[in-house]
Amino acid sequence: MFCAVQWQGCAAIGSTQTADTVGAGRLQVGVEPGVTALLPRTSTQTSSLTPLIDVSVRYGAAERLDLGVRAGQSGLGLETKVMLTPREWPVLVSLAPALTATLAPSGEPVSIAGSLFSAALPLLIGVRLGPHQVVLGPRAQGFVFLPTDGARLPFRALMAGGSLGVALRLSRAVAVMPELALLMPLAQGGDVPAMGVGVPLQVKLGFLLGEPMPLFTAVHTP
C-alpha cells in the first residue's frame, strides 16, 4: 500500500551524483541503497518508512554532457547532466533533468494500483574540498499518479526542495556519497490519496564506480 497510497516513497527525490560530468567517453556506475520516509503534515496522516536500492549508469557523451539511466525500486529513469562551468573551477554548477516512471503495487496478493511518472529539474552546485565534493541540489519536481481504478481521477503534485550530499573520494575509481533529500508540496490536484500528501524524505548512500574519475584527476594530476 505504500507505493499505491504514499506514492512519493517510490520516486527518487535526490541526484546522488557530483556536479561535474564524468568526461567524454567515460562511464560511471552507481549503486544506491537507501531509505524513504514519508513525514505526516497533519494529525490524520501517518508516517511511512520504506527501504530502496537503485543502480545508475552514466556515460560521458561529451566533455560537459552526461547521459544516463537509473533503475531499481525508484522505477526506471532517464537522466542527463549539463555542466555549466569549467571543470577546473572550485565551484561547479550543472543542470541534471530526469524523467522517471514506475508501477505502484498494492494489496495482498499484490496488484498494480497505478503508474507514477516524475519529472525533476535539479541544479547541482558542487564545492570542491581537495579530492572530495560537497553537493547542494535545489530542485523542482512534478508527479503524476495514474490509478488503474477508472473511478478515480489522476493525482498531480508539484514539489520543491533539495538535497545535500558529500562525495568522498576513496581512490581513483571509487567514491562514497551519503545524501539527504527533502521535498515540500507546493500544489496538487485530482483525487488525493486516502492517507494524504506527506513530506518525502530520502537518505541514500551512493557508491560511485568508474576509472579514471575526472574530479580526482583534475585535482591531483598535473
Walk me through the structure.
It is a single chain. With 222 residues, the chain is mainly β. It has one domain (2-220): Beta Barrel (Porin), CATH 2.40.160.20. Helices cover 5% and strands 60% of the residues. It is built from two helices and twelve strands; from the N terminus they run αββββββββββββα. It has helices spanning 2-5, 214-220; strands spanning 27-39, 48-62, 65-72, 75-83, 91-95, 98-106, 111-129, 132-136, 139-147, 155-169, 174-189, 199-209. Strands 1, 2, 3, 4, 5, 6, 7, 8, 9, 10, 11 and 12 form a twelve-stranded antiparallel sheet that branches.
How is the topology of this model organized?
Layout: H1 2-5, E1 27-39, E2 48-62, E3 65-72, E4 75-83, E5 91-95, E6 98-106, E7 111-129, E8 132-136, E9 139-147, E10 155-169, E11 174-189, E12 199-209, H2 214-220
Antiparallel strand pairs: 1-2, 1-12, 2-3, 3-4, 4-5, 4-6, 5-7, 6-7, 7-8, 7-9, 8-10, 9-10, 10-11, 11-12
Oligomeric description of these chains: single chain
CATH architecture call: Beta Barrel
Order of helices and strands: HEEEEEEEEEEEEH
Count of separate structural domains = 1
Low-confidence stretches: 1-9, 213-222
Q: Give the class from helix and strand content and strand pairing.
A: mainly beta
- What would the average pLDDT be, to the nearest integer? 84
